[in-house]
């Protein structure tokens, strides 16, 4: 049988004033409760919470609340515990141990900017930037104020090189570090200095540094060549750009997209008439040096760059070579009743190029009155990835631009459909009358 509730509950609050308040709590009997507040008790007056034994950790909620019910709802007011303050309403699952907020492997990270040495070199770089560039003596005097050379490190040198402007100060500091032989020279020091010189269009100095690297056996990486070639293009030194691009290949390095973009722009400005056989041999040489798994993405990238540079014919040549060397084995699928163009493994530029090639091929088949299937499909793929979504949008836009007879499938996202009749009608309406098949 449940214990009867006493008519008066004494609750002690933290405030020191003694007041009496009446609260009416709705209940069956509408009992009145009297609260009496007095001076707070000291922490020593409050009973300590006993440690929870192992056998109580997995106890039920009712068992854990039993002691609370026996004291708070007791008929003897004197045995009630004193409440010191209102606790925060935090719920804890009684059946599970509370997880720590941070794992043991997680440590506090300090930014390098808080390092005393880094701060010293930041201030040093600022002093160099404030120096009068026209006064060689003043700048060299500032250089001698460099923080203790014993603390000079790779990170400190890079911090200063990246902080100095304009390029003249970067170059002077680089030469000073090299002359003093304070730290072994690395490729990255040259790369950072060259990038600063590129802003000033100082190709002559950049090329001089490149020859220094070769003479001193310092490795030139992809970034080094990319900086040299892009600077040559900026300075309209197209022959130099081609020279270093060819040198890059001889060193066995694969150009990145920035380098290819720069060199393609150079070729476009030179208006060189390169034969298809030359392109074929160069393409074969590039792909032979590339890992198998990157050949198709690399070819996609080249086609994208060509389209971005409005070199559409070259993009079609690259797609043909990629198909010839087996980079796109599933691009075309044919059955008796349908033909499918599958561009799911292609980039946007490569997919649009493949679509143009396919439409030209289909137009040729119609003109020759050769057999066609009843249905033609083009697949861009589906999925939540933003690339698949972007490819689908770009492909649909290009279809509208070509006024091609393909329409989005109502049943399958990323699939475009055209019938044989639609295709024949489209080809005939887009050809001069003398070329229309009868």
TrEMBL record:
UniProt entry tagged with the keyword Repeat: yes
UniProt keyword Repeat present: yes
InterPro entries in the record: PPR_rpt, Smr_dom, TPR-like_helical_dom_sf
Each PPR repeat, start to end: 221-255
Keywords tagged on the record: Repeat
Pfam family, one: PPR_2
Domain Smr as annotated: residue spans: 341-424
GO biological process, one term: positive regulation of translation
Biased composition, class Low complexity, residue ranges: 35-53
GO terms under cellular component: chloroplast stroma
Coiled coil feature spans: none
Stretch list, region Disordered: 30-58, 72-103
GO molecular function: mRNA binding; rRNA primary transcript binding
Family statement drawn from the similarity comment of this UniProt entry: Belongs to the PPR family. P subfamily.
PANTHER family recorded: OS03G0856100 PROTEIN
The protein's name in its UniProt record: Smr domain-containing protein
UniProt lineage: Eukaryota, Viridiplantae, Streptophyta, Embryophyta, Tracheophyta
């Amino acid at each position: 049988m449940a214990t009867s509730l006493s008519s008066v509950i004494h609750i002690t609050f933290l405030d020191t004033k003694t007041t009496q308040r009446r609260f009416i709590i709705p209940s069956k009997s509408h009992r009145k409760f009297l609260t009496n507040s007095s001076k707070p008790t000291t922490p020593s007056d409050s009973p300590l919470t006993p440690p929870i034994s192992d056998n109580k950790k997995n106890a039920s909620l009712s068992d854990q609340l039993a002691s609370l019910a026996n004291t708070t709802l007791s008929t003897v007011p004197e045995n009630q515990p004193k409440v010191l303050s209102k606790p925060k309403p935090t719920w804890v699952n009684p059946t599970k141990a509370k997880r720590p907020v941070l794992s043991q492997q997680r440590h506090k990270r300090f930014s390098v900017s808080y390092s005393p040495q880094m701060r010293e070199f930041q201030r040093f770089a600022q002093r160099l930037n404030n120096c009068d560039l026209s006064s060689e003596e003043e700048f060299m005097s500032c250089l001698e104020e460099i923080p203790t050379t014993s603390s000079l490190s790779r990170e400190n040198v890079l911090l200063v090189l990246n902080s100095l402007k304009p390029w003249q100060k970067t170059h002077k500091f680089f030469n000073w570090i090299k002359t003093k032989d304070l730290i072994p020279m690395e490729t990255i020091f040259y790369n950072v200095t060259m990038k600063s010189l590129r802003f000033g269009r100082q190709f002559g100095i950049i090329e001089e540094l490149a020859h220094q690297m070769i003479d001193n056996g310092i490795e030139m990486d992809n970034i080094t060549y990319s900086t040299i070639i892009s600077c040559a293009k900026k300075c309209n030194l197209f022959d130099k750009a081609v020279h270093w691009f060819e040198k890059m290949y001889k060193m066995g390095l694969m150009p990145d997209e920035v380098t290819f973009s720069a060199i393609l722009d150079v070729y476009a400005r030179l208006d060189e008439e390169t034969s298809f056989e030359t392109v074929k041999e160069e393409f074969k040489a590039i792909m032979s040096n590339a890992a198998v798994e990157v050949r198709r993405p690399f070819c996609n990238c080249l086609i994208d760059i060509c389209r971005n540079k409005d070199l559409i014919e070259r993009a079609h040549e690259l797609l043909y070579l990629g198909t010839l060397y087996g980079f796109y084995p599933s691009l075309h699928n044919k059955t008796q009743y349908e033909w499918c163009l599958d561009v799911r493994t292609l980039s946007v530029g490569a997919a649009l190029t493949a679509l143009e090639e396919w439409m030209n091929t289909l137009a040729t088949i119609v003109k020759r009155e050769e057999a066609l299937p009843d249905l033609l499909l083009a697949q861009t793929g589906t999925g939540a990835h933003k690339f698949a979504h972007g490819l689908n949008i770009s492909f649909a836009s290009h279809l509208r631009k070509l006024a091609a007879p393909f329409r989005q499938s109502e049943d399958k996202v990323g699939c475009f459909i055209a019938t044989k009749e639609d295709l024949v009608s489209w080809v005939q309406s887009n050809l001069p009358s003398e070329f229309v098949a009868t």
